[in-house]
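Re: weekly structure request thread

Next one in the queue (179 aa):
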Amino acid sequence: MRFIKLDDKTSSIILGIKEVVINDPNEFLRSLRDKFSNLVIQALDANFIAGYEHLKMILQQSWMAFNRKVSYTKKLDLEIIVRTACDSQIERALKTLGLKSGKMNIALIAIGEMRDLRLFAENIKNLGEISDDVIKLNHDKEKFLIKHHSISDELIKATIADKNKLAMILSERANLLRV
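Done, posted below.
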């Protein structure tokens, strides 16, 4: 679980949750959004997340784009999924990164005031096991993401980042999306 400050009044929380049982993906999100109406909430397939740093950069990009009125979408929760998917087509991004029926590991993101985020974190523990492991980048996930996003070895070698090069590459691609 990580908190990220977006501006003076607004922060976000990122939670990894293992083996969440999802009967109806739309209802799952709708019930969370109804219960925590002061927050912007999005849930993503954790298999497409290249670590906390990846999501942190995507959240910051999405937040800044929205505040500058240069976002790809009209809703912040959709902006997050489009940028994380590196795909400006909302329908495709949702199909790729969105929730699916069954059991899955998810990255749950909420944006709002700190007091609301703390309440959110306390009240979602019944969804499944809170686990940083589902968000962390491991070797298998890295191989999958490199193939999924068609990232060349040359690009990885040319990236100057010290730590998570894949997170840097994906967040840069998210920044350069075309509508």
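The beta strands are 2-5, 11-22, 40-45, 102-112, 129-130. The longest strand covers residues 11-22.
Next request, please.
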